[in-house]
## 1
Amino acid sequence: MENQRPLILVSNDDGVIAKGISELVKFLRPLAEIVVMAPDTARSGAACALTVKEPIHYQLVRKDVGLTVYRCSGTPVDCIKLAFHTVLERKPDLVVAGINHGDNSSVNVHYSGTMGAVIEGCLKGVPAIGFSLCSHEPNADFEATGPFIRQIVQRVLEKGLPPLTCLNVNFPDAKELQGIRICEQTRGEWVNEWENFAHRGDAHYYWLTGAFENKDEANEQNDHWALDHGYVAVTPVTVDATAYGLLEEMKTWF
């Protein structure tokens, strides 16, 4: 149908009742038909995890004109897979995840359940975008992100993305944003990651914590520099994990 509106599948890792996903849906509804399939509780840090040792289920939460919302007992990746298998009447034009409560720049892309959902959409051949705000506050203010989310989504709907490529978009926690910068992924790592908070008999208990160590501070092209200077950081991400630069050299090894 020529006048058929785009269809966007939405998910997240903070859970279906998180403020971030509600705000995302609010920003996207003028642009497309929306189907939400999101975890029933928070699954932060789930990355691309699958549920394989128990069945999962979903149920309808809400159905309005142009918006259908489901909650799912699985991970963000489960949500995308199950939505494709069950509730979507046609292939979506876009998969969007977020708005995450917390920074998913740099190496966090590998740990993020938000980006896990995005990567799954990408693997299914659908353009996909993850949106994150650098604030963990449950009642964070997402309003400044709205115009940029709509602009980025409209561009991707118009232009598409190359195969096996998705977008990781991060917003600084600010009421006024300086604009969009297309960025590299910052090189860094998490250090001092575990805190020993209890010792009972032979058992030691640890809480995951840590601090991010930026190994790329002088590089103004990376996503941390953009966020530190008030810009929206847009990082194209490839899910093809082949190290092409090493292929020819390795052929001489054997």
## 2
Amino acid sequence: MNWTVCINNAGYEASLESRKLYRLEDDPKAHARGLVRVVDESGESYLYPSDMFAPIAIQDALEEQLLAA
């Protein structure tokens, strides 16, 4: 699973929080258009400009805890 951190939520303040971790969903068509599919504050996945996020790597044990929360 992939994770990212929001580095800019301008225009999406109700849906995204700056400096917060978000789960990415694989979406090759979105990626080709410069977008990422992110599970946001609503719990649903939506497309956002990829430059609003920075991908990060996390350890498996932490990922398990994040998914359980």
